[in-house]
Amino acid sequence: MAEKMNNNSEIKGIRLSGKREIKSVNYADDVTLTLRDAHSVNLAIDTVDRFQMASGLKLNKQKTQGLRTKNSFPEILLPDIKWHHENFNLLGTKIGKINLNQIWQEIDGKIKSVINEIDSTYATLDAKEVLIKARLLPVSNYAAQTYPAPTEKIKKINERIVRYAVGKYEHADINTLQLPKLDGGLNFPNFEIYADIIYIRSILKYCQARVQNEPLNVHTTYIEYQIGHAIADVLEVVRLNNIPHTETRSPYYETIMQIINKYNLKRNDLIERKIKKTYERIIQTKKLKAISDLGKIWERTHLKILPSYLRTFNYKCAWNLLPFCNETGNYTPASKNSCPFCKVGPDAAYHVFFKCPQTNKQWKQTIKDAEELLQINLQNENVESLCQLMYNNDRHPNKDQLLTTLITATKHQIWKTRLKCVIDNQAFSLNKLRKDVNKACNSRITTIRRDHPNIMTNE
Ligand SMILES: [Zn+2]
Q: Which of 57, 88, 323, 343 could covalently link to 84 via disulfide, CB atoms 3.0 to 4.6 Å apart?
């Protein structure tokens, strides 16, 4: 059917890029005709009618809609289907004259209602990270790749998501939370960057196709016709032909250039084509700023000899992100709000890690083990000052790293034991904690002996 239309020179389609004339765009059982005048539309419908008779398939005229973009002929000449003059929905995307603010207002409303729904469930920061990606980002995905997001609207949505993510964790630093896990963050999405990158996805594809000398599809042909030449000049992307170019550039050209400039995207970023890579590259530039603001704390909490789960743990400790009942709440049942070890003190980081008489017994053991292993004297340190040491310890670089490892491993086992008591209702046993800490510390030291032998021997 499409071939029949393409071969009929009386049916006039829309000419793109001077080479191809597009008369129809077909997705399985959904056909979109893109025609120039009433005569072409009538001939095309005739072709469809004849195809129906031959094949037994049937066009549902009730569901058929059209968009008129010119008024140079009376509507009576057009077939009897529903005609729109401003815009209409094509496969879920509004085509024609559209109101961006209104579209994004609707998306913001949907995001708000999903947040209301998911915010009523208990969720850790890690769970929220997954929920944001699984429930919130898809809400805007479809629209974001078609319509540029107005700055004010995107700011509002971003704030909404950030508030959902860290609202109860007032110490959280969103800039570092947005870093990839490998870089010590929690991989929280930055909605603004995300929406921008999704929007310029077709530009990434266009640049790639141009550089690889791949044939352009309808979408990339449209870009070439509308903005390709200008983009090609700015980004030094190859121009392969001298296609007649539209005199008035797409209104989105400015938006696209703004996005490219805003994130300082270079030619290579664009020809990589992958959204994820481009997103990560932008986040990396944010990382440098976020981390340089933090100075040594970042370096110490993300000590290179620590495995990534302990770095994440240190990160959460440093930013008070661990969900204790008496602090960040809304995670464990409200009835359980006393320390699961001594049953007297509060279930709060300061008590559980430093003040609890039960964990103090463990710390005495850890200090003794550390003194033996590192040949240092720690008797004058109390547990709290010892834990603080790891942020500003400058005595012996190697010994400090090992000490930090032992402290972190102990603290992490205390946290794991607390979770078992609070979440799984297990009874607390100091002996079990001792065994777990011992095992964790030994395993860390063995790994360091193997991977970083100079740290074990040097002073
Ligand atoms: Zn306690």
A: 88
